[in-house]
Every structure is written in structure tokens, then in C-alpha cells.
Design goal:
The chain is mainly α. The chain has helices at 2-32, 39-59, 64-89, 98-120, 144-166, 168-178, 180-185, 190-212, 222-237, 242-262, 265-282, and strands at residues 125-126, 134-137, 140-143, 217-218. The strands form two sheets. Strands 1-4 form a two-stranded antiparallel sheet. It has a two-stranded antiparallel sheet with strand order 2-3. The protein is globular, with a radius of gyration of 19 Å.
Length: 292
């Protein structure tokens, strides 16, 4: 019993980050109809900024918790600035252009990875533990640090899901995702809404990177692994579907947790791709997606 609870807890820990990452991907696709392969670089940049700024702040006398909070604020600001820059000079010109945005995002991903290596160096970094201690839950153990980070990630995911379904901006994003031409005929400023959707998606990737930074080994390529799994999650759930992104993320996290325990991590990865193929054969639009 304890083993199963532990595997479930592990899946929730991993899934919480995957959910944030995948929500950003699916939101950008839904609003702009682009598949952003540079999305993982927002994740990487947030983690790298924290990895560099946190030790500097601690060395200059800031308490560890305060230093982490300030580093997170700086990371989110830097990533949002980069997102705005890439939108204005890149993605803005390729909205609803799958081929053009694909080529652009691949090029940007390679460019940003090279810049990160030059700026931050290719060395891996590990942050100090923010909170010590372990919590026992039905025989399963989870560190207090991971529990807190998981709780924050789930709270952000729930808040974002509520905002998309209940706020004026969220309704505008949904309307544009459903039919952007009809939304424009109703007087909705499509370009402003598209920018808002892109920046929110970028922010979600940055939050995921910031939350993972204290419990992961950080390198300039860390976002690439999460990009692959994020795409698997949104393809399974359905591109453009927020409930689908959540379901796909939790499914991928469960496969990774259970498969990594009972078999080999490489077999768990293979299982993810097999499930993607099976889902696409049975339902090409994904579990919760719909044809456009």
C-alpha cells in the first residue's frame, strides 16, 4: 500500500510542474494557432536566472527564503521581457501560420540555447535546500520543500483554470481560440488578446521553471526535456484544450512515476510515445480536443 501511495505522490509532484508547462503551451496554441518549440527556453531561463541570482543574494546578506522570493520575481520579469520581445519581433508576424511559426520557434530555441550557454556557461547548478524536513502521508514520504512547491504549482494551475473560465480576459481568450474572426467582428482586439495569451503562456512556463529550480539540477538545456513531455501531454489531451492539458500532464507523470519504478525510465518514455500513437489513431484531435 505504501509503495502505491508513494508512486501517486511522486506522480503528483512531477505532474504539478507538467500541468503548468502544458497549460502555457496549449494556451498559446489555442489563441494564436502556433506550436511554440521555444517554450522550453522560457522554462530554462527562469531556472537559470534563479540559479545565478539566489547565491549572489545570499552572499550579500539576504535570508535564503527572501533571496529565493526576490530571485523568482527577477526571473519572472526577465522571462516576460523576453516573451514580449519574441512576440513583437517574431511570433506576431506568424500568428495562425503553423509552418512559419514552426520554423521560427525551432530557430529561436536553438539560438536561445546557444545564448544561455554563452551567458550562464554549460555547467550544471544545484540550489541549496530551502526547507528541511519530510512529511509522512499514508506511508509515503515527501520533503516539505517539494510539498510546498507542489502546492504552489497546483494552486497556480487551479487559479489559471478558474481565470480562463470566469474572468473577462479568460472569456476573451476562449472566444478568440474558438473563432478569432467572429471575435474580431464582435469588436474584440485580437492582437492585444493574442499578446496577453502569449505572455500568460510564457509566464506559466517561467513559474514552472522557478518552482522546479530548487529541486532539480539546472543546466541551459533543462527546458528541452520538459518541452518533449509537455508536447506529449498536450497532444494526448488535445491541442488547445485546457482540461486536456491537465489530464495529459497527470497521465504522463503517472507513467513516468510507475514505469520508472517497476521498469526502466527509458521504457516509461517509450510507453509515452506508444500512448500518443494509440490516442492519435483512435482520436486524432486528442482526448479532449475538437476539430477546427
Amino acid at each position: 500500500m505504501g509503495v502505491y501511495v508513494q508512486l501517486l505522490v511522486n506522480a503528483l509532484q512531477i505532474g504539478a510542474v507538467y500541468v503548468l508547462f502544458s497549460l502555457g503551451l496549449t494556451l498559446i496554441f489555442g489563441v494564436m494557432r502556433i506550436v511554440n518549440f521555444a517554450h522550453g527556453e522560457f522554462f530554462s531561463l527562469a531556472a537559470l536566472v534563479i540559479a545565478v541570482s539566489l547565491p549572489w543574494l545570499v552572499a550579500h546578506g539576504s535570508p535564503l527564503a527572501l533571496a529565493f522570493g526576490l530571485a523568482c520575481v527577477a526571473a519572472l520579469a526577465v522571462v516576460l521581457g523576453l516573451g514580449k520581445l519574441l512576440y513583437e519581433f517574431g511570433f506576431k508576424r506568424f500568428q495562425r501560420d503553423m509552418t512559419g511559426s514552426f520554423v521560427l520557434s525551432i530557430g529561436l530555441a536553438l539560438l536561445l540555447q546557444g545564448l544561455y550557454i554563452e551567458i550562464f556557461s554549460p555547467a550544471s547548478r544545484k540550489l541549496p535546500t530551502l526547507i528541511d524536513g519530510t512529511v509522512r502521508l499514508f506511508g509515503a514520504g515527501i520533503t516539505q520543500q517539494r510539498l510546498l512547491l507542489c502546492g504552489v504549482a497546483l494552486a497556480v494551475a487551479v487559479g489559471m483554470t478558474w481565470a480562463i473560465s470566469a474572468t473577462r480576459l479568460g472569456l476573451a481568450l476562449r472566444a478568440v481560440a474558438e473563432d478569432h474572426e467572429a471575435a474580431m467582428l464582435q469588436g474584440m482586439p485580437y492582437r492585444r488578446i493574442a499578446l496577453a495569451g502569449f505572455l500568460i503562456g510564457t509566464l506559466l512556463a517561467a513559474v514552472a521553471g522557478a518552482l522546479l529550480a530548487p529541486v532539480a539540477v539546472i543546466s541551459p538545456s533543462i527546458g528541452s526535456d520538459y518541452l518533449v513531455k509537455g508536447f506529449i501531454a498536450v497532444v494526448i489531451g488535445g491541442l488547445g484544450s485546457i482540461p486536456g492539458a491537465i489530464i495529459g500532464s497527470l497521465l504522463i507523470a503517472t507513467i513516468e512515476s510507475v514505469g520508472g519504478y517497476y521498469f526502466d525510465p527509458s521504457l516509461a518514455t517509450i510507453a509515452m510515445f506508444v500512448i500518443v500513437m494509440a490516442v492519435l489513431l483512435v482520436r486524432p484531435t486528442g482526448l479532449m480536443g475538437h476539430a477546427t
